[in-house]
Structure formats: structure tokens, C-alpha cells
Specification:
The protein is an all-alpha fold and 163 residues long. Helix content is 63%, strand content 0%. It contains 4 helices and no strands. It is elongated, with a radius of gyration of 21 Å. The two termini are 29 Å apart.
Length: 163
């Protein structure tokens, strides 16, 4: 009788969490987490530059820029906090990857339009020029997030089956 022995090795990786396991600090070191942090910083700087500027050459254009930058800052802050506190699992009725994909799709379009309008209407006011530059930076970061979200949610899915 010929007997074979098998050894099974299992490994488990966990991110750094707080004592109760509610906080997922490991997310802040992932590519999606870093992209969200970058987007939030760029949008906040863009908003503050417009808010602190004096002598807007085009009041309507920069109000639109303020609304768009603040809206998406708040939206991405909420998504970031949801990932940080693992709230997606507590609300399974939403398709969170699709919701983020939708926000990135709309965000890329609206922030890009607002940044173009801000750049055209800045009238040489340096704070407004800086705000449009940070708007373009946020647009680029959102486009990268949109691309990575698209490849995750709409790309080929592996079943994990071993052939």
C-alpha cells in the first residue's frame, strides 16, 4: 500500500485595523484609497481658491465651479469614509461599485467642464487660475479612478475555478 501525505498551507492577510475591527486603515494605502485622498485634496484646494479669491470676472462661472467641486468633494469623502469604516457590508441593498462608477463618470464630465470654464473666465486672477489647475488635477485623478473602477466592475471576472 502506497500512502501519500498532503500538506495544506493557508495564509491570511489582514489590513491594520483598530481594536474592534471597525476601522480599515489599510484602505488608505491602496491605490483606490490614495486616489480618493488625492481627489479630495485637489477638489478642496480648488474650492478654497475660488472661495478666497476677490474680484471674480464671471460670477456665474465660478459659482458653478464652487458647486461642482464642493459636491464631488463631499461625495468622495462619503465614499472614502464608507470604505474606511466598512459600511458597504452593512448596506448590501446598494451596488457600491456601480454607484462609485456613476459618480466618477458624472464627476469627470462636470469637473472638467467647470475647470475649462474657470480657466477661460479666470481673467488673470491667480487664485482662479490655480483653482482651475487643481480642477484639472482632480479630473485626471477621477479619470484614473473611473478607468480602474470600470476594469473592476465591467471587465472580465475570474471565477477562481482551477482547471
Amino acid at each position: 500500500m502506497n500512502s501519500m501525505s498532503h500538506t495544506v498551507i493557508t495564509t491570511s492577510t489582514t489590513g491594520r485595523t483598530s481594536g474592534d475591527g471597525m476601522l480599515n486603515l489599510g484602505y488608505t494605502r491602496t491605490i483606490p484609497g490614495l486616489l480618493k485622498i488625492g481627489q479630495m485634496v485637489a477638489l478642496l484646494v480648488a474650492f478654497l481658491c475660488v472661495r478666497c479669491a476677490r474680484g471674480w470676472p464671471s460670477w456665474a462661472a465660478f459659482q458653478f465651479f464652487e458647486v461642482v467641486s464642493l459636491w464631488f468633494f463631499i461625495a468622495f469623502l462619503l465614499f472614502f469614509l464608507m470604505h474606511l469604516f466598512r459600511l458597504q457590508a452593512k448596506m448590501p441593498c446598494f451596488n457600491w461599485p456601480l454607484t462609485e462608477f456613476f459618480h466618477y463618470s458624472v464627476g469627470v464630465i462636470l469637473v472638467c467642464i467647470a475647470s475649462i470654464v474657470a480657466a477661460v473666465k479666470a481673467g488673470g486672477v491667480s487664485a482662479l487660475v490655480v483653482s482651475s489647475v487643481f480642477g484639472f488635477i482632480a479630473t485626471f485623478l477621477m479619470a484614473v479612478s473611473l478607468w480602474t473602477t470600470y476594469t473592476v466592475s465591467c471587465g472580465p471576472h475570474q471565477t477562481g475555478a482551477v482547471v
